[in-house]
């Protein structure tokens, strides 16, 4: 049986089978006048790598299991990012999609093919990285795992429907319908962060940190649908390179900056963060007897 990730790559490749090879897309990005587009990928690979090393260094002395779990989730955000941006850089997760009739970019050509460049690998990044961001936020707020996993499910639905919006070529109306669905799932997540988790952070005693993290995350996340709507996938006011840099800057804010702010707080292992020896254990810890 093939792993789900491999099947996902094959499915996207089948959808984007337009005759453009990975090598041709690589040469289009790095061999022409697309320096800004190429830099939007390479800079994030470097930052993700530095973030992974930074977390490993800062977390080397953590002893409590709860701060360790938060640090692991923080590291996995950048692990996903460096993998995804490498896919974009290599051309593996790029594609050329012909826009439906009525779209402002209908009739455009890219790398000698009809259609526009679609960075569908970014949706893979968001699908696998945003759940870890929510896990971190939920744990810092002191939320329960039912609510944390529910938000993770909604964020996966948000990213998958966003990908559907980017790849739909049959109808302009359907593209925007997918976008509306994705935005609706996004608003559910925003509500949980701003209302439920804010109240829980007050009870937990992590209000100051959580306030900073939620503002950076929520404000940054609102930028993604705005860029989608203004970019080549939406009404095409922004070109591909500008849109890509917009996404990259938002990734820097909502991933790497948020990561280090949270990590600097966690390494001190304050009482509001620590969970004790029994944290996540299914049974209470039993101390050995003296007999």
The CATH superfamily name is Rhodopsin 7-helix transmembrane proteins
- Strand fraction: under 5%
Sequence of secondary-structure elements: HHHHEEEEHHHHH
Task: Specify the biggest β-sheet.
Answer: 2 strands, antiparallel
Distance between the termini: 51 Å
Helix content: 55-70%
Total strand segments: 4
Low-confidence stretches: 4-11
* Shape type: globular
Give me the CATH architecture, please. Up-down Bundle
The CATH topology annotation reads as: Rhopdopsin 7-helix transmembrane proteins
C-alpha Rg (nearest Å): 21 Å
The average pLDDT value, as a whole number, equals: 88
The top level CATH class name? Mainly Alpha
Alpha plus pi helix count: 9
Q: Which class best fits the helix and strand makeup?
A: mainly alpha
Spatial ordering of strands, largest sheet: 1-4
The total domain count is: 1
């Amino acid at each position: 049986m093939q792993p789900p990730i491999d099947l996902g790559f094959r499915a996207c490749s089948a959808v984007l089978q337009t005759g453009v090879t990975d090598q041709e897309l690589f040469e289009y990005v790095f061999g022409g006048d697309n320096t800004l587009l190429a830099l939007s990928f390479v800079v994030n690979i470097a930052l993700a790598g530095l973030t992974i090393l930074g977390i490993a260094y800062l977390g080397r002395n953590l002893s409590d299991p709860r701060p360790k779990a938060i640090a692991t989730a923080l590291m996995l955000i950048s692990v996903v990012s460096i993998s995804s941006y490498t896919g974009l850089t290599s051309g593996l997760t790029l594609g050329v999609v012909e826009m439906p009739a009525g779209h402002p970019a209908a009739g455009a050509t890219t790398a000698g093919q009809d259609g526009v460049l679609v960075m569908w690998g970014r949706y893979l990044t968001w699908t696998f990285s945003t759940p870890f961001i929510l896990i971190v936020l939920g744990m810092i707020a002191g939320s329960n795992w039912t609510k944390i996993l529910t938000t993770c499910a909604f964020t996966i639905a948000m990213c998958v429907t966003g990908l559907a919006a980017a790849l739909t070529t049959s109808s302009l109306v359907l593209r925007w319908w997918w976008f509306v669905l994705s935005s609706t799932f996004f608003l559910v997540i925003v509500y949980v962060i701003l209302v439920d988790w804010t109240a829980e952070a007050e009870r937990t005693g992590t209000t100051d940190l959580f306030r900073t993290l939620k503002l950076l995350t929520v404000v940054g996340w609102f930028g993604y649908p705005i860029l989608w709507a203004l970019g080549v996938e939406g009404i095409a006011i922004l070109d591909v390179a500008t849109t890509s840099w917009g996404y990259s800057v938002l990734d820097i804010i909502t991933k790497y900056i948020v990561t280090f702010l949270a990590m600097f707080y966690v390494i001190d292992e304050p009482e509001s963060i620590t969970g004790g020896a029994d944290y996540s254990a299914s049974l209470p810890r039993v101390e050995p007897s003296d007999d």
